[in-house]
Amino acid sequence: MTRWFHLFVLLAALASQPAFSQDSGAQAPTDGSTQGEPAASSDTPTPDDGEPAATRGLDTMVVTAPGRDATRFNVIQGTNVLEGEELLRETSATLGETLERQPGITSTGFVPGSARPVIRGLDGPRIRVLNNGVGTLDASVTSPDHQTAVEPLLMDRVEVIRGAGTLRFGSSGVGGVVNVLDGRIPTEVPENIYDATVRGSYGTNARDRAGAAAVDVGVGQFVIHGEGFVRRTNDFRVPGNARSDDLIALEGPEPNEPGGYLINTDIDDHQGGALGGSWVFDKGYLGASWATKESNYGLSGLIEEEHGEEGHGEEEEEVDGPRIDMEQDRYDFAGELNHPLGPFDQASFRAVYGDYEHSELEGDEVATKFTNEAWEGRFELRQAPIGDLDGTVGVQFVSRDFAALGAEAFVPQSDTFQFGIFAIEQLALGPFSLEGGFRYEHTNVQSDEVRKDLTFNAFSFSLGGSWSPDEDWLFGVQLTRTERAPIAEELFSNGPHLATFGFEVGDASLDKEIGWGLEATARKRLGPVTGSLSLFYNPFEDYIFQSLTGEEEDGLPVRMYVQNDAVLWGGELELEWLAWQNEHVAVAFDAGLDYVRGRVDGGPDLPRIPPFRARIGAEARSRYVDGRIEVWRVDEQNRTGPFELPTEAYTFLNASVAIRPMPDRAKDFSVVVEGRNLTDEKARNHVSFTKDILPLAGIDVRVLARLDF
């Protein structure tokens, strides 16, 4: 598959005409595509007119949010948008790692090859991960060791909506929605025939080498898109022992306690590409794309690797250990028409078919094979404004044929069909804004293996309002109620799952999960001090989660899916102070924190809840060079679920430099050099199933480069 990468690097390199300059006020289009970064102004110290980062972020359009002109400032829920140099700096091997330093977002952090976002302590079927507005159609919801089928290095933009109120995308987004936008289906014709990008990265800890290229070529009203990527990493290095002190005390020490470079944690044969095309006309577009991805990555780090720097190179001894070998072919179709259609002024659709499979390998033998053949589609009509009333109605369907075959298949074959209809309305009343939404969802889950055929009907709604006394401030509150049908894994699991070191047991009698959400928001976007505050309180009726029972089956601890009333509460805070600025340099300080607490009603704490985190940073920005230093403090987590071990507090020191050698040129070239965990602190991610055997990586110096032209 490396031919994809080589082909599109060549196409991008052959492009010779200058690309058009983007207006500094360019906004994200509403169809899910992205535009280039604004060019630097010659009379300002930064490429963003010297405004503080918090201000720039709050004025950013959020295409995933409801509303015609939704920005981070006026969306009631908490949001994050990553793009440009900030996205380049945060880009890692997985989607979870890329987002884990955003407020309220952590990562499952299972192994370096697999990490999925966790939002406000919720993950799995409560977090909807989208690729250009529709699902990824992989098996990442089934287990945290399964990779999310998106490629971080080719992401143009990532939008996150934290909390409920995401009725457009289904009840599986009760905890939040992550939408990865990569422009695979073009929505506009390049002004000067083509647009191209080349991106690359290198990390010292695991010798993480990655490269990607993409190009759009316009021929009349038609646009052809091509892209390719490749990534390789070696085993990653951790400071100290791999096993936690608590686990060593519980199980006893080993003669050669594993540590250093942890064997079988590499990523290999990670590559893929895509071809797409669109017909772009005056009032919309119609397009399609095909994408393929494959990846092979290790799941074990329990054996000490007996090599030094020489062994940490290209030729490492092959080790028989548990690995995942995955591949997916994906076919996307999309279109949009901006034209009066009775009471509507826009119609859009997206549909995707995905053929996914991965094998869990024990040496050269396939222990378990997972397949997921799925369709998803959505059709939306945007209402023409009636005075100050605006809204969207739509339908969505998902069809999923999932199977696990082999000796360690802990989930039986199942078919899931889900159909939903929704409506969202917004009403502007001067400084006040009101928002309401409703969704009906029908779900059928059946498995011939266990002779079950279950049907659920779910009703969800949201109500919210905001008040903006002036252009500086916004205050908002939102109430939501979401009903979620249990997924096949929660209903039918019954077997050993060695990847998560447990014997997983489902419950076919599980009822719908009902989640209530109350969120209050305050934001300030102008002046030297800017920022936002979000507070949330989420009680659940019949909350579904995995609980350790204290029993063992096949030598593995039993994890059973159970239902209990539960509550999660917490909040996020972001602040920035523009301390000093002249015509050449701007200096700013920023701080942030997030906290979530989860408990079973009248009982113990919920398992794998992230601890309190706080960040303080300082940044100097100019047209050519930006410098940043930050300190992250993550608290201990001793509020644990039954039979769950605690984790200790840690402090990370990070620093980065972004260089733009040609800020006045049409070609956008930037290089970011970043150091993570510069003090080589030993740390563990409490959310991870593997936290007691795989600590977080030690010091890592990363170089990332991007050339857009």
List the helices and strands and how they pair.
Elements: H1 2-14, H2 53-58, E1 79-83, H3 84-90, H4 95-99, E2 105-107, E3 117-119, E4 127-131, E5 134-135, E6 157-162, E7 176-181, E8 194-203, E9 208-219, E10 222-233, E11 237-241, H5 245-251, E12 259-261, E13 267-281, E14 284-298, E15 322-337, E16 344-362, E17 365-386, E18 389-406, E19 414-429, E20 432-447, E21 452-467, E22 473-484, H6 488-492, E23 494-497, E24 502-505, E25 513-524, E26 529-553, E27 556-581, E28 586-600, E29 613-621, E30 625-634, E31 650-659, E32 668-676, E33 700-708
Describe this structure as you would to a colleague.
This protein has about 700 residues and is mainly beta. It has a single domain, classed as TonB-dependent receptor, beta-barrel domain (Maltoporin, Chain A, Beta Barrel), CATH 2.40.170. About 5% of the residues lie in helices and about 50% in strands. The chain contains six helices and 33 strands. The strands form four sheets. The protein has a 22-stranded antiparallel beta barrel. Strands 1-6-7-4-5 form a five-stranded mixed β-sheet. A two-stranded antiparallel ribbon has the order 2-3. Strand 17 and strand 18 (about 390-405) form a beta hairpin.
